[in-house]
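hey m, so remember when u said the tokens were messed up on ur end? i reran from scratch. heres the input so u can diff it against urs
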Amino acid sequence: MTSAKKTFQPVTLSGVCLIYELLHKNGFVSFPLTGGGKQKVDALVANINGSYFGVTPYETAELRAVAYLYFLIKDHPFTDGNKRTASLVFEVVCEMNSLKPNYQDFTLDALAVFIEKTREPDHQDVIRKLAKELFLKHEPERF
């Protein structure tokens, strides 16, 4: 018996906006969501989940999860709370797709700050490296 390939479950524009609005409602971000912010998120979600001339830039669920984290931080669609929103969206995408990120060497907060500060011009390379680091299957230590 072969197992069917699981379909990636994306977070949509409305899902990202709901997460931001919950953060705002609970006082974790200072400013309400703007129309411009929604447009930026809409473009971001379409770019992560779309294909271009038949090529999908993020072929795996792991790459797409990291792409959400990366672009919500780097594209700065919100007035406030980009790293917080990106971190929560990342966790939701991972949960929806049964992904288990490995935070053995760093925290999600530290990763968000790292992404914000990185100046690497090849964002695809950064996303690939982060996905490899976060989702690499570590073998248990042998004693």
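this time it looks ok to me. The domain at 13-135 is CATH 1.20.120.1870 (Four Helix Bundle (Hemerythrin (Met), subunit A)). if urs says something different then somethings off w ur setup not the seq
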